[in-house]
């Protein structure tokens, strides 16, 4: 965070970016999930600091009048909603800057181990892995990494024909999780031997009836063709299917993976997964 008086020394672009970061840090501090080193530590009470930096934002000529009016109203009420002010201000700034709010939303989770503010160790479900076969969309691949990291996958494997995880769009949608998780690019035949492998595909066992393994690899297929016959032949622990009722009966691969991974990790927690 920065002292309000110092903000006036910055150029308009720098000021907006610093304010966006500051309001984000304040939101996390209010929520009790501040990253180490970003906790509020000024002598001025935090609410007063929030009001001061909001007053700086109100001087921004690009701030929409409707938003300015909302912020002035929030500042004037006796029961000051500090978190609401931060949220409105941050989203307004990101709109002015031209940045999606989600690009700033990666928060170091409270359950991770940190030393000097840096994550040193991930908490994950040992042996829970995913293999992405021929995913062509960088957005989808980045989403798979983001979901895998959030839900506690240990490893991510990608096929030789998957798009490059280092592609800009993949990095953007992964929210930093490609760097956090890492990955191995391997052929199907080079996946670890003698471990359970199951496929996410149509025509299998409904999600609610599927018996998940305690450890294993879930196979995800390409957006257009699904899993290859070669991949399906590797599924020694079966095929899981997400029941759908819509006319289209279609889910984005990243969304489908999130649904299955939630069910898998919940089965492990509940002791329903098999050895």
Blueprint of the fold:
Elements: H1 4-7, H2 12-31, H3 46-58, H4 65-76, H5 82-97, E1 113-115, E2 118-121, E3 128-132, H6 138-151, E4 155-158, H7 168-174, H8 177-181, E5 184-185, E6 197-206, E7 216-220, H9 229-233, E8 239-241, H10 253-269
Parallel strand pairs: 3-4, 3-7, 4-5, 6-7, 6-8
Antiparallel strand pairs: 1-2
Helix pairs in contact: 2-3, 2-5, 3-5, 4-5, 6-7, 6-10
Précis, in short:
By secondary structure, this protein is an alpha/beta fold. The protein is 41% helix and 13% strand.
Integer-rounded radius of gyration: 23 Å
Task: Kindly state the percentage of residues in helix.
Answer: 40-55%
Number of helices: 10
Q: What is the CA–CA distance across the termini?
A: 49 Å
Bin the strand percentage: 5-15%
Widest β-sheet, arrangement of strands = 5-4-3-7-6-8
Shape, principal axes of CA atoms: elongated
The protein's oligomeric status is single chain
Structure description:
The chain has helices at 4-7, 12-31, 46-58, 65-76, 82-97, 138-151, 168-174, 177-181, 229-233, 253-269, and strands at residues 113-115, 118-121, 128-132, 155-158, 184-185, 197-206, 216-220, 239-241. With 275 residues, the protein is an alpha/beta fold. The strands form two sheets. The chain has a six-stranded parallel sheet. Strands 1-2 form a two-stranded antiparallel sheet.
Give the key terms.
alpha/beta; 13% strand; 275 residues; 8 strands; single chain
């Amino acid at each position: 965070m920065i002292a309000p008086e110092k903000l006036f020394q910055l150029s308009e672009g720098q000021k907006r970016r610093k304010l966006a970061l500051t309001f984000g840090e304040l939101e996390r501090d209010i929520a009790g999930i501040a990253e180490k080193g970003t906790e509020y530590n000024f002598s001025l009470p935090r609410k007063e600091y929030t009001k001061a930096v909001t007053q700086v934002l109100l001087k921004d000529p690009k701030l929409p009048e409707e938003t300015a009016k909302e912020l002035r109203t929030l500042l004037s009420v006796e029961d000051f909603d500090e978190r609401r002010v931060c949220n409105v201000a941050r989203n307004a700034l990101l709109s002015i800057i031209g940045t999606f709010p989600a690009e700033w939303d990666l928060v170091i989770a409270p359950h991770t181990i940190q030393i000097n503010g840096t994550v040193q160790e991930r908490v994950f479900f040992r042996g829970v892995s995913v293999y992405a076969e021929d995913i062509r969309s960088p957005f989808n691949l980045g989403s798979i990494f983001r979901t895998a990291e959030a839900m506690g996958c240990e490893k991510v494997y990608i096929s030789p024909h998957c798009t490059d995880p280092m592609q800009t769009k993949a990095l953007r949608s992964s929210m930093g999780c490609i760097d956090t998780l890492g990955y191995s690019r391997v052929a199907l035949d080079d996946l670890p031997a003698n471990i359970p492998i199951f496929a996410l595909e149509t025509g299998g066992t409904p999600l609610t009836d599927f018996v998940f393994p305690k450890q294993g690899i879930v196979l995800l297929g390409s957006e257009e063709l699904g899993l290859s016959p070669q991949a399906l032949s590797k599924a020694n622990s079966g095929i899981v299917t997400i029941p759908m009722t819509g006319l289209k009966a279609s889910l984005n691969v990243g969304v489908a993976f999130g649904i299955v991974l939630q069910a898998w990790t919940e089965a492990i927690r509940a002791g329903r997964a098999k050895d």
